Each structure stands twice: as structure tokens, then as C-alpha cells.
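Supplementary material to the annual report.
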Amino acid sequence: MGSESLNTYLLVAGFLLVAGVYGMVQKRSFIGMLIAVEMILNGAGLNFMAFNKFLAPDPAVGQVITLIVMGIAAAEAAIGVSFILAVYKKFRTIDPGRIFTMKG
Amino acid sequence: MHFYQIIAEIIFWLLVLITVGGGFLAIGARMLIHSLMGLSVTFLGVAGLYIYLGSLFLSVMQVLIYGGAICIVLVFGIMVGYTPRQIVETRIRGENLLLAVPTCLLAMGLLYFAIRKTGWLPAPQRLADYSIERIGHSLMYDFSLGFELISLLLLVGMIGAIIVVNSQEEDDGGK
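Predicted assembly:
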């Protein structure tokens, strides 16, 4: 365990994944769920970089994939926030538990 | 072990602590703005870990894209629907909390077990080149399809965001 061990980075990335999944289930707002998704994506990027340093033959591959993950995260945040804006305009709330159009 | 190596190890564990602590704050805070602060602390910690993984460029990109762009977009999202002091209730309480926390701990334990048990096999031969030139070269030649698809995704994302926000004005009768 230490900065020269692959397992440390994998455990930190695993913590980010588990915390993100827990936060996505637990948060009672769309923004909170978006925050949790960003944590999961960041954990994935950390995983790619760790495998890139310790195992991969070409160190450029992991960095390129991490850059692509960052681009996807940026697009996802923009779409998510615009979706929240649209939902807020229509329903005047962004609590996912109170948004329904066809309540039986 | 030299003195500067010990300093480097201490800074490494501080970065791990910052990352994990920010994660706990992000999922545990009751106000959304505190949650977002925890998330940005996590981003900065991961940016420090990227330096230990050999890539200063990715570390700068992490601060720019995650710490800069995404956090500010999320702040805008919070400003739309919440007053900053408003407390957001958690969805899990009572016996669901008693189920959720052990499930997450079990998942973390399983991950730990799997990581410890796996014998990782390093590549026999390595090109030790972390330069930005190498990254740009592989973006343009080896990963040009992914590069183009990302640019297309960002374009479609921006157009879609504008359309989603603007198309709500006709039917304003909701709820």
C-alpha cells in the first residue's frame, strides 16, 4: 500500500463508485443525483489512469480514454442541468418524488 | 527510504484523505451546496492523484473541466431550484437506511477482496512516454474515431440542451 501500489488507487476508485451509487439512491433532488454520477465517472477515470500507469504497455491510451470520459461527463452535466431547468419551468419543483403527470 | 520519499508518501495519503473525505461530504451533506463543495474537493484530490500517476496534463485537465466547468454548471443548477440554505431531505430513512448502508459496505468489501486476490500482470515492455505530444498524436491517429464522436456528442448535447429548455414555453399548463 502506498503511492507505488496499484491497489491503493483501485480502492480509492472503488470508494468513489460505491459512494456515487449510494448518493444516487439517497439524494432527493436531481442535482444531488447528478453530483453522484460525476463521482462515479471520476472513479472510472481514476481506474483508467491507474491501470495505465501500472499495467498498460502504452501510457498514452489510458490518458486519452480519461480525456474522453471527461468530455462525456461535461456533455452529461450540460444535458442534466438543462433537463432540470425544463422540469423546474414545468413543475416549479426539482424534487423527483413530487414530479408526476399521470397520477392514478 | 529518503527524506523526500517520505514527504511524497505523506502528501499522497493526504490526497487520498482529501478524496475520500470529499466523497463522504458529497453524499452526507444535508444542504446541496455543501454537497457540491465536497464534490469539488474530491475533484481536486483526484487531480493530485493524477500527478502521482505520472500525468501532469490530465491533472490540469481535471481541474479545468471537472473543477471548473462541471462544478459551475452544477452551481447554476442549484441556483435555479433552491435557495442556498434550503435543506434537502434524504430519501432513505428507517429500515431502508439499515439496508442501504450495509449493502454499500458489502459492495466495498467485495471490491476490496477482489482487488486483493487478483494477481495483476504488468505489460512485459513499456513505452515510458507521458508527453503531451504523444497524447495528441494518439488522439489524432489511433483514437481519431473517438475524438470525432466526442466532438459530435458535445455538439448534439449543446443543441439538445437549448431545444429542451426552449420547447417548454408553449405548453405551460403542467402540474
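Chain A is about 75% helix and 0% strand.
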